[in-house]
Amino acid sequence: MNNALNTQFHNHPLYKRIENLKKLECEFWLSKSVNLKSNQSQSEEIKNIALELKPWRKGPFCIDELFIDTEWQSFIKFDILKPFMNEISDKIVADVGCNNGYYMFKMLEFNPAKLIGFDPSVKYRLQFELINALAKTQIKYELLGVEDLSTYALKFDVIFCLGVIYHRMDPIKMLKDLKMSLNKGGVVFLDTMYIEDEREIALFPRKTYSKISNIFFIPSILALRNWCERAGFKEFEVLATKKTDKNEQRKTEWIDSYSLENFLNPNDENLTCEGYEAPKRVYVKIKV
Q: What is the mean pLDDT of residues 234-238?
């Protein structure tokens, strides 16, 4: 348990305001977004809290007439993984790097036995708590990172780790942490940005990639396979690849910052502003 982050979370000025929303009766259902029906007299308070919690990266979310148009249309990624969601039924499931929990809310319809999100961001935890105050689910959220998984009290049958590995300075250590956190027969669903190359290599950006400084290694698919094998995984299956486009990731009023269109070369959208390959993602399933 990260006591410092938990203290920061509970002392945050929005914490009690969000707690008060738990008294509301509401309906909760899923489609391409999360839709919640709250007490109309509280709509302004919900909107004000949501605005104070910007930027909203993952979503979108609908709360009555309030539409939180997030930077990412995350249902696009979820729909890529949806054909494999039968594997989480009655299983203990972790979402590592869960952001505000969007994917976990979407997973509920597949009836996992237990669903736990991990992310060391107080702001994203507050976003989750805002939605969950109205949705009233049993999802658990831990202010912990992937490095905390191997010592966590539970082991998992299925782990989702989406958009995390390229932020790690030691990707093989991260994969080993995931492996150590699995129950026997467990599976990891992983996605990462990748480079098109038939060699077993990875891009290590000089300073930034797409203007993001905390991106370290972007592998070819073969290099990613090698990382997984070095970490002790024996099965490696590519599920899908997809280029990130301006429909999936774009600037909205809910982020107040730049997005994909600002990260690409204005003269060639196949390149980033630094001259690297434009972002594309590979989705893989790995097992021990």
A: 98
C-beta of residue 101 within 8 angstroms of C-beta of residue 142: no
Torsion angle (degrees, nearest 10) of CA 15, 137, 135, 256: 60
Quick one: tokens of 240? 């899908």
Give the C-alpha separation, 28 to 243, whole Å: 32
Give the type of residue at 32: K
Q: What tokens does 214 get?
A: 């905390």
Eight-class DSSP state of 138: -
Beta carbons of 119 and 125 less than 8 angstroms apart: yes
- What does the alpha-carbon distance between residue 202 and residue 8 come to, in Å, rounded to a whole number? 37
- Per-residue pLDDT reduced to its tens digit, 27-81: 555 444 455 555 666 789 999 999 999 999 999 999 878 899 999 999 999 999 9
Cα dihedral 268→274→277→279 (10° resolution): -100
Question: Which residues have a Cβ under 8 Å from the Cβ of 145 and sit 6 or more positions away?
Answer: 118, 119, 120
The phi, psi pair for 127, rounded to 5°, reads: -60, -45
Displacement of CA 81 from its chain's centroid (Å):
13
Paired sense of beta strands 34-37 and 61-63, if any: parallel
Rounded Cα gap, residues 133 and 216, in angstroms: 36
Is the model's pLDDT at 102 over the cut of 80?
yes
Claim: this prediction has a pTM higher than 0.90: yes
CB proximity list for 141: less than 8 A, separation 6 or greater: 98, 101, 116, 117, 119, 125, 128, 129, 132
